[in-house]
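Exercise: predict the fold of this chain.
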Amino acid sequence: MSLFPLLVALQFLTRLPVLLSRMPTPDESGRSLLWYPTVGLALGAFLVLLQDPLNHLSPSLQAALLLSFWVWISGGLHLDGLADMTDAWVGGHGDSERTLAIMKDPNCGPMGVLSLVLVLLVKFAALASLVAVEQWIGLLLAPWLGRWVLPLLLYSTRYVRAGGMGQVMVENMPRFWLPAILLLHGLAMLAVGMQGALAILCICVLGWCWRRVLIRRLGGTTGDTAGALVEISECLVLVMLAFLTA
């Protein structure tokens, strides 16, 4: 099996210096979704490795540095989706066409900025709580689950934004293999123990509710709403694990 779709996923989801020898075909773009959970696992592993040399620092400084690296390595890609979705959801006033139009606007409004501040603040506080008691598992699970639920949403929900890379991915995703890959990663998360099981349960409930809200407002999902789900999923996993270890 060609690893080119993995390189496509790495280039799209991270700031790692991945150079593609050519543009991906539509089929390769679709198959890159198979690798999203693996990329999330790799991001989590990076965070776990980074935490070790930071152990001598205060929990708040550790959390700040870990979160800064987290945002940097992911390129802030999903934070952008969160801001766009928040602006559109508030400004759309329940109208689907207006919501989609605002979401396409590259400018970030005050509600979008507020959502970024709140999500990053909650992530920082949860990370500080976790590193204070040396609970590194959240660093692994949060980005892993965030990039596990994203292809699950795209697989199960109609894509309503015509054109662009997102539509190409959805139309060409391997619908036979994707559920198998997601199941495999889900079983691997269960191997982590009770924390992994509870994290999966929380994200499945969140994903189900998220999908219902999107269908009610938009009739489906977009790249921005999928990216926003990644951020909220990461936030929820960290808060849930911090609550369990308090």
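Check your answer against the key: The chain is about 75% helix and 0% strand.
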